[in-house]
Amino acid sequence: MNTFQLTRKEMASLLLSLKGWSHKPPLSVLQEAWMQTDDHRFHLGSDPDPADVGALPSIFEKIIKLDKPDRGFSLNEIAALGNQIEYTNFSVTALQNWIKRDMKEMIGSPQKGKKYSLEQTALLFIVEDLKTALDFESIRQLLKLIINDPDDQKDDLINPIHLYACYSTLFEEINQRSFNEKHLLSEGIIETIEKMINHKAEKMVLKQFQLDEQKRKAIKNIIVIAVLSVHTAYFQMLAKQSLSAALFLQNFPFTQE
Q: How many structural domains compose the chain?
């Protein structure tokens, strides 16, 4: 049975769809994400088995039933949605601390009645990624480069949803390519990956944003930092998995033939 989780790029696509900024409805985004988890079955020419997906998370069921775009989420829903992203671990308590204390000035009050907007949801996802490598004061200073007033997205340098989509797309591209590049064998892997991230982030910003150089640099820098932070979370996850395996094997009752 598969665990149905989304990559960051897939979550960004879902947020864009929920905002009404995509030609794909949320159901299509989730269906395509599930097809990726079961991709081998399609290549083998056999039909996918719905039972193999397991129970669809309740937050996805709720999203599929939404009757109009740009709806808000409660903290419980944001935590549930965030926990469907790979390499993440959200809790309502942590979100409350960020909103009431650590990131209060950046997140602001609920913008959809008693619920938080999709932009605020994206910001919380961004904070989760950045906190892997940065302290909260550094995160606040970094986000201030692109967010002028949390209650008014119109004056943001880049919409938080678009920011999340940009670095999520770049992370996935780098993650897929980095260990297949032949030149990594002749250079330091970490140094080469860093250069690759910087280069691709600069190209992305030049292509997507018609801004002056200073503003482009601000967006590029936060994209680079976010991608590096997500890589940090990825390697931390690998380290924890290796530790669990090592401890398990240490206590495994091997038998001698």
A: 1
